[in-house]
Amino acid sequence: MTVSAGNEPGSWNTLSSEYLYRRPWLTMRQDRVRLPNNRIIDEYYVWEFPPWCNVVALTKTGEFVLIKQYRHGIGMVHYEIPAGVHDQPEESLLEAARRELLEETGFGGGRWSPLMKLSANPALQDNISHTFLAEGVEKIGKQSLDATEEISVHLATREELRTILRKGGMIQALHVAPLLKYLMDTEQ
Amino acid sequence: MTVSAGNEPGSWNTLSSEYLYRRPWLTMRQDRVRLPNNRIIDEYYVWEFPPWCNVVALTKTGEFVLIKQYRHGIGMVHYEIPAGVHDQPEESLLEAARRELLEETGFGGGRWSPLMKLSANPALQDNISHTFLAEGVEKIGKQSLDATEEISVHLATREELRTILRKGGMIQALHVAPLLKYLMDTEQ
User: Fold this and answer.
1) Interchain pair A121, B1: CB under 8 A
2) Which of A45, B18, B58, B120 is the most exposed place for a label (fewest CB within 10 A)?
3) Distances in Å between the alpha carbon of B136 and those of B20, B66, B142, B154, B176?
4) What confidence tens digit (pLDDT) does each residue in B92-109 have?
5) Where are the domains of chain A?
6) Number of H helices, E strands in chain A
């Protein structure tokens, strides 16, 4: 199945590393690296983040728990799945995902399992996004948002979700991919 | 289908903007923003990038054209689809995608159509990734790589691609999502 000459790509060797920023919301590193062909890149930037987690959550009646949130990078609102950061050492990834679902939507309970691991950008950032599948969740509380969060909650049937995905209603690749995977895995 | 109180989330208002970096490979902005609830965030960081493009390319015999490349952010090699940056004003997005496929793999020709638009991170970066579908491509030339690129080319049948995706052989969400979409759209 390999059609190119030679071996698999080799790793780079980090010769030195310097932090340009270490602020609460911004950790940026500049590496000097040597490539397998001995070429040197003097300025290679990497953003460091804690692991991220998100949830494909389904209610007992088979509806997907979606949210909408303004995202300032692209300046737009789209559908998303509940998601957050795993930045509390006493929490497991699963606990962080459960907490985010509850805080952002008030939904909880259900049967949880790992669904997928992805990277938003394996070239430029160092963290992995862990998606969990939560089946049979129900409304068990109220939203509990940070002062900087404004999140609306939406329940979508399987058919509504397919329409949202087909019409570009969801744009975050870390959310689209696990939803498509779930839909494909459970196709009748 | 909306279950939360209130309206859809509102946009933020950018009060001031300052560029922390404007280097060839790093454009980083710090915004001061006002939220709909009048709360102010003094330091909100956005990375600006040109549009990205990538290609779900299929040969005349129905094999997917995949590549492998070391990615320094996570320090690993995974399967990817051919991809690049749309940074030449005289090129269209489609032309940039065709050029990247040819440079990275030597494959070209075929029938091209838009498949999907995604964001790697709508909160933190401003650009969109445009995926094209290229059907019926064939080997028309040699790889033509930059001195910093080391890319191996792999052809995968539909079944091999499904195995790669199922086993975590591909991690870049911008690549996984359009492949899953294509597989779902063309499911027999």
Assistant:
1) no
2) B18
3) 45, 14, 18, 16, 21
4) 999 999 999 999 999 999
5) 13-47, 52-185
6) 3, 11
